[in-house]
Specification:
The chain contains 1 helix and 10 strands. It is mainly β.
Length: 118
């Protein structure tokens, strides 16, 4: 199992970033995939989920600003998170994984740091 997140960085409030996640080594294509984030001193939280069929769901704080998408390629799943109108409170390390990862004791990738600051 390999999860590799990328695309983070430092951006000013109101800016945009596009995160990417390459998931391989497991049957990720049949799972709902989720972007999570963890800010310093806070618990990891679910940000956005996309089902295997393409339906999406978002935490209220990012609705209308973030868009999750996926591409089920052969032997690999790509999961993306387009983040617009970024706010300082979006600052966190962002991870992707299956929707059940937190309760399944699944391995995690290294995450990608997003910092929103002027």
């Amino acid at each position: 199992v390999q999860l590799v997140e990328s695309g983070g960085g430092l951006v000013q409030p109101g800016g945009s970033l596009r995160l990417s996640c390459a998931a391989s080594g497991f049957t990720f294509a049949i799972y709902d995939m989720t972007w999570y984030r963890q800010a310093p001193g806070k618990q990891r939280e679910l940000v956005a989920t996309i089902t295997s069929g393409g339906s999406t769901n978002y935490v209220d704080s990012v609705k209308g600003r973030f868009t999750i998408s996926r591409d089920n390629a052969k032997n690999m799943v790509w999961v993306y998170l387009q983040m617009n109108s970024l706010k300082p409170e979006d600052t966190a390390v962002y991870y992707c994984n299956t929707i059940i990862a937190p309760i399944a004791n699944s391995p995690w990738g290294q995450g990608t740091q997003v910092t929103v600051s002027s």
